[in-house]
Protein: D-inositol 3-phosphate glycosyltransferase
Amino acid sequence: MPDAENSGSGHPQAKRPLKILIGADTFSPDINGAARFTERLAAGLVERGHDVHVSVPNTRYKKNPTHTEIIEGQPVTMHRLPSVRWTPHDWLRFVWPWRSKHYARKVLSEVQPDVVHIQSHIVIGRGLARIARKRGIPVIATNHVMAENILDFTTMPPLVDKVVLKLAWDDATRTFNMARAVTTPTRRAAEFLEKTIDISGVIPISCGIDQRNYTADLSPRTKMNVVFVGRLTTEKHVDVVLRAIASLVPELDIHFDIVGGGDQHKNLVELTEQLGITDRVTFHGRIPDEELRGFLTRASVFTIASIAELQSIATMEAMASGLPIVAADAVALPHLVHDGENGYLFEPGNVEDLADKLRRVLTAEPAEYSRMQQASLEGVKIHDINRTLETFEKLYRNEPLD
Structure:
């Protein structure tokens, strides 16, 4: 299949609006890449004139009546299903798996969509795919999941984890085989999925970003502010960044802003104290989008040490803010960060390499720093949200991709 990630954009053709049901296991008020993409997808489709319904877990074990929520400034019809919290995780909630098909039947009967777009194969998407297929409703599936990430929260022995992992990917194969098309955010993520399970023809479609919402400050930097935005979980490896910052102090007058919350917050605060850099690091927790965009505008460099990114919306937001990026050379991050162009890649987990790459950016001559800023701004253009929405519209209508 063609690489839709780089498909062109243009004015949408005047066609009959679609009724689209999106199913996801994570959504607002959750804060993570998959949830943010689903919110932007739903809102973008509404803005383009479609009737969009979203089926997601509720914030409690009670089914909310069908209602409208304002998502990204757009009215979206919500179907929030009874859910329970996964206690090893700080916020994750899920629908009981054995109830997923029951809820799928009810929501599909109520909505009667033209197409179903699932955002994961785990619970809600799994149920929707099976019932939609029986009813002859086309299914589009997007994978945001690396099952290995979930193992941090199973609390089971490693041997059992391996068995669970195999079963999870086997079930993913069965679910994806029910879809008319399977997508994932980047070409590398598509290759990862094709190598992991028995599937081919996975289509890379960027999660997309509206660059107009972000402001780049192209004036010379007078301070050395490093920023990270994301969940504070083990696969993000924020500890690696903290150790790199510590190795650069007092050589450089650095301040590190950490935006986001997660189960590793306490451990990272303790590590900051052990490293003796508490006066150089600020944990901001979860903050409103407007405040987040301000941090990105004012920062000097964005860094991410994660080894489990299928794309990284936070990195795209930093690029749209005109920041050089220092990122781990892992999974899909090299798709966004071109070494020596809009920043640098470092060997995953290598504190010395990360420190060296941060030093290069923070001590770059003004012309070199400006060149990296411009490269980020140019590089993020292909991830325009309108390209993403147009590509999904074609998949929903079973039209050929450019």
